[in-house]
Write a structure and sequence with these properties.
heterodimer, A: about 525 residues, alpha+beta, nine-stranded mixed β-sheet, three-stranded antiparallel β-sheet, 18 helices, about 40% helix, B: about 525 residues, alpha/beta, Amidase signature (AS) enzymes, eleven-stranded mixed β-sheet, globular, binds zinc ion
């Protein structure tokens, strides 16, 4: 059961060698917790972070005699997700029981869907760097299915070194999570991504996250587990048409980790295959800290969940008219929306790609809606804060939320610049203060005493002083060599300790010398 | 009125006496509790008697009546409940060791409705473990005995409810019927039992044996009482997805009218004749003659696939049961057994040890069967095929109901057998349900009413009526018509001819394993 003793480092092949010899085949399984008010099959609340075992009832505790009733909002969300993923929606489908014993599963079966998913056969277009290396292009990820199921409880293993079951003295189970509605979205095998496979995987999960967010069906907070990704990966020799044996890496829970896990598994598989070995079909655990996967449990045909149709629930048969009505509630597809926003914002392809890759589209849109210019929104969100978020292994929106930095801060910062109170370098200092939690931009600039000098007397004095100290340069300017003014501006700014508007200084000098 | 008079009255009569103020609910409840004290040592119908709760509920009804409140018609008539329905604050064991000591924190919908109707709950009745059996011999707490002969089975799985009603330890009771567990005990104890249309009575709080087959229903001494109780517990429940939203058919009215004139009654060829005990068949034929005399028309129908009903049932039931019973894992409630010599046992080892110690042989047998039938590679051949036959059986029922308004058969092929007779032969035990199982597979309602005593052994025989889904009223029309004719013929209720339980010698093997 344990993995801690198996943290041996697997051999890895150089990435370039892997992609030179093999084609990767990926399958991505994403579990999304819906943010419905109540659970999938009972009336318990779903709020995150409540005291353990306070959001439970006979149904989600699986007490003898209790029966499930399907949450209609969850079905609606599932259909909207299916439609947004360009899926067909089943006119009739059932739940099934997936039978296996585990202490965090109250009934010892999970009510899920098996061979009759609510949505199937769809696709999601994601943007990835073009194969040519220039600009971006669309990569279509085919969707196998999206189905409804319930989450399990959450086990905490106490007393062991790593929080894993091995070495633990006892385990605690919190059933608050048991019965939270989940949608599992499964891709068809993703072929043809080649060396871009890690980026495609990341772009897919990011695209899915944006879509689900736009649909307003889930919090899609990967760090809270409301969106979880399993990465299935295999390699086949270039030109082959039979898939290799796959590994299933569980719980890869950030965009960056998705990319890294795919890359790592490709290199690990490559090393095994190159060495003449064969891949074991198994579950693997992703280790965020070390960036490697370790062997979990071997998967084999012995895994038999004895699925059968859930007799306690009636089939779900969404009327066509309802499905069509739900179709009208779909938000603009993120890819189309991005094109529209790029044009609205006036961003170049390169700028837009960077913004998309950094997961900044929503944040910039919110900031623009709040009153900032697109350029300022892009500038501030993709600068210092992005660098820091990256260093923390987080995405910017999450990191900003943690810091409590909001679009309003950017709007305020920009207005301080346009009103002439701050110049660019002062604005950067103010922004650092905001990121450090010193307050709003106005508060930071007040507290740090950062403000352009508006007092013309002080400025004039500084200009006169610099002109007097540099008679040669002043003469050149008087002779019409205006480009020499830069040297004086720099000195004035130095005298003013940066707290002057450079363009105002320039005008003043020229006025005095011509 | 003495308490021994009171306990022999029907529930409908008791309701009238209460309404008229001639008796209090407290008196009635006490009379039944006295009867339990007097005879249940011999019968063992109850697993748990809740004298305190029942008397409190009775006092509450009496107080409300005295205050002039308008009460439900049967308020104050006590009742017994099969131990498979959850009762808040009262033990619910399902006849199994694995649930020993478990006190549910919630009431089954049926139980809630009984309480809302003002029915004091006398206690919980014995049953085959998790309703698996036709004799109540498979209760982990010892068998229930047939009031007609203490050496014989009271039927099963709901032998406790039928025997309680048959031995006047309750005016009426709740049973559950997965393959005949209400009807077959009724037949062998000379009482009445109805399995309503699937979805007609909420299953919320009914600890599932086989979810697609289980249905709770009334166990009574008269057809009218069954209809009255059916009306109390029936109707839509939003907590049960499989509950039917349509209003309940007019069951009480049908029982009161007892009119079969012009009704076409279909004798199912596959459910009579060969394999049925001579006396059982004889009483059935006489009952048919009574109905014809009352104006019904007899037709014969054939449902060839009923031959496969038993096999189908014993694939579907264990499959669902294997999954339903998975939750009994010692993690959250009920029994917990630590594996011997394993102080550091894992959760899985504790689960295994508990299930090994907590489940009886019949339960294990069916869990193994069901696990096998659902396993990959066998699913299509077993569970899949069974579902197809199930559909076929439903289709044949539908075809038969184009020719007949109701279908009839003997309820069980034999009268009550002796303890131990079929314990070593599960197949013989399973065959006892041959006539009752098809209705469960098709979700149809059925009733068993007493048709007399078999001449060869002097034991009760049952007459079964089956109707289309949501035509439960027809059961009561036919049942009441037959009951009226037979009562006229016998001049007294069948149970009047049963031996006086208190005078019967304590059976040698009657020492209960139960240490309640
Ligand atoms: Zn709940």
């Amino acid at each position: 059961m344990s993995t801690s003793t198996q943290r041996t480092t697997d051999a890895v092949l150089d990435y370039d060698d892997v992609v030179a010899a093999y084609d990767p085949v990926m399958g991505l399984e994403v579990h999304v917790e819906l943010h419905t008010n109540t659970k999938m099959f009972c009336g318990c609340p779903t709020a995150f972070g409540a005291e353990p075992n306070t959001q439970v009832c006979p149904v989600c505790l699986g007490l003898p005699g209790a029966l499930p009733v399907v949450n209609a909002v969850a079905v609606e969300s599932a259909i909207r997700i299916g439609l947004a993923l360009n899926c067909e929606i089943a006119s009739w489908c059932r739940f099934a029981r997936k039978n296996y014993f585990y202490p965090d599963m109250p009934k010892n079966f999970q009510t899920s869907q098996y061979d009759e998913p609510i949505a199937f056969n769809g696709w999601l277009d994601v943007e990835v760097p073009a194969e040519s290396g220039e600009g971006t292009e669309v990569f279509r990820v085919e969707i196998e299915r999206a189905h409804m199921e319930e989450d399990t409880g959450k086990s905490t293993h106490v007393g062991g070194a790593t929080g894993r079951i091995h070495g633990a003295t006892h385990s605690l189970v919190d059933y608050n999570r048991a019965g939270i509605p989940l949608i599992e979205i499964v891709t068809k095998p993703i072929l043809g991504a080649g060396e871009r496979a890690p980026e495609v995987a990341r772009a897919y999960v990011a695209g899915l996250r944006d879509l689900l967010k736009a649909l307003d069906v889930s919090d899609v907070r990967m760090e809270q587990g409301s969106m979880r990704c399993d990465v299935n990966l295999s390699l086949m020799p270039k030109g082959a048409d039979r898939f290799g044996t796959r590994s299933e890496t569980k719980n890869v829970n950030s965009l960056r980790s998705v990319e890294r896990a795919v890359r790592y598994e490709m290199c690990r598989h490559g090393a095994v295959l190159q060495g003449g070995g064969s891949i074991v079909q198994e579950t693997r655990h992703w280790h965020e800290d070390t960036g490697v996967t370790t062997s979990g449990r071997e998967k084999s045909d012995a895994d038999d969940y004895r699925y059968f149709p859930e007799p306690d629930l009636v089939p779900v048969a969404p009327p066509r008219e309802w499905v069509e009505q739900l179709r009208t509630t779909l938000p603009e597809p993120p890819a189309e929306r991005r094109k529209r926003l790029q044009s609205d914002w006036g961003f170049s392809d390169l700028e837009m790609r960077d913004v998309v890759n950094a997961g900044l589209v929503e944040l910039i849109q919110e900031t623009v809606v709040a009153g900032a210019s697109p350029a300022a929104a892009r500038k501030w969100w993709s600068g210092e804060i992005a660098r820091r978020a990256n260093a923390e292994g987080q995405d910017v929106p999450t990191y900003a939320a943690v810091l409590g930095v909001t679009p309003r801060h950017v709007v305020e910062l920009e207005s301080l610049v346009t009103s002439g109170r701050l110049n660019d370098s002062m604005a950067r200092q103010v922004w650092e203060g905001v990121l450090a939690g010193e307050g709003t931009p106005t508060e930071v600039s007040d507290a740090r005493g950062l403000e352009l000098v508006q007092d013309s007397g002080a400025l004039e004095a500084a200009v006169d002083e610099v002109i007097a100290a540099n008679p040669d340069i002043a003469d050149k300017i008087r002779d019409g060599k205006v480009q020499a003014v830069g040297a004086l501006i720099g000195q004035v700014m130095k005298t003013m300790k940066g707290q002057a508007d450079a363009s105002a200084v320039r005008e003043l000098i020229i006025a005095k010398l011509t | 009125m003495t308490s021994s008079d009171l306990i022999r009255r029907t529930a409908a009569e008791l309701a009238d006496l209460l309404t008229a103020g001639e008796v209090s609910s407290r008196e009635l409840t006490e009379a039944h509790l006295e009867r339990v004290s007097a005879v249940d040592e011999r019968i063992h119908a109850y697993l748990h008697v809740d004298a305190e709760g029942a008397l409190a509920a009775a006092a509450d009804v009496d107080r409300r009546r005295a205050a002039g409140e308008s009460l439900p018609a049967a308020a104050g008539v006590p009742i017994a409940v099969k131990d498979v329905l959850t009762t808040k604050g009262l033990p619910t064991t399902c006849g199994s060791r694995i649930l020993e000591g478990w006190i549910p924190p919630y009431d089954a919908t049926v139980v809630r409705r009984l309480k809302e109707a003002g029915l004091p709950i006398l206690g919980k009745t014995n049953m085959d473990e998790f309703a698996m059996g036709s004799s109540t011999e498979h209760s982990a707490y010892g068998p229930t005995r047939n009031p007609w002969d203490l050496e014989r089975i009271p039927g099963g799985s709901g032998g406790g409810s039928a025997a309680a009603v048959g031995s006047f330890q309750a005016p009426w009771a709740i049973g559950t019927d997965t393959g005949g567990s209400i009807r077959q005990p009724a037949a062998v104890t000379g009482t009445v039992g109805t399995k309503p249309t699937y979805g007609g009575v909420s299953r919320y709080g009914l600890v599932a044996l086989a979810s697609s087959l289980d249905q709770a229903g009334p166990c009574t001494r008269t057809v009218l009482d069954a209809a009255l109780l059916h009306e109390i517990i029936g109707g839509h429940d939003p907590m049960d997805s499989t509950s039917i939203a349509d209003p309940l058919p007019p069951v009480v009215e049908a029982a009161r009218r007892a009119d079969v004139s012009g009704m076409r009654i279909g004798i199912v060829r596959e459910l009579t004749g060969e394999g049925f005990q001579a006396g059982v068949q004889q009483r059935f034929d006489e009952a048919v003659a009574h109905l014809v005399d009352a104006g019904a028309e007899v037709v014969e129908v054939s449902c060839p696939s009923f031959t496969y009903a038993l096999a189908t049932y014993y694939l579907i039931l264990p499959s669902e049961a294997s999954s339903n019973l998975a939750k009994f894992d010692a993690m959250r409630y009920g029994m917990r057994v630590w594996p011997e010599g394993a102080p550091d046992a894992s959760a899985e080892q504790v689960m295994a040890a508990t299930r090994d110690a907590g489940f009886g042989d019949e339960v294990k047998r069916r869990i193994i069967l069901g696990t096998y039938a659902l396993s990959s590679g066998y699913y299509d051949a077993y569970y899949g095929s069974a579902q197809k036959v199930r559909r076929l059986i439903a289709n044949e029922f539908a075809a038969a109901f184009t020719r007949a308004d109701v279908l009839i058969s003997p309820t069980a092929p034999t009268t009550a057998f002796r303890f131990g007779d079929k314990l070593d032969d599960p197949m013989a035990m399973y065959l006892n349900d041959i006539a009752t199982i098809p209705a469960n597979l098709a979700g149809l309602p059925g009733i068993s009413v007493p048709s007399g005593l078999a001449p060869e052994d002097g034991l009760p025989t049952g007459f079964q009526v089956l109707a289309p889904a949501m035509a439960d009223d027809r059961l009561y029309a036919v049942g009441a018509a037959l009951e009226a004719r037979l009562l006229a013929e016998w001049a007294a209720p069948l149970l009047d001819g049963a031996p006086d339980v208190t005078s019967l010698p304590m059976p040698a093997a009657a020492t209960k394993e139960d240490a309640r």
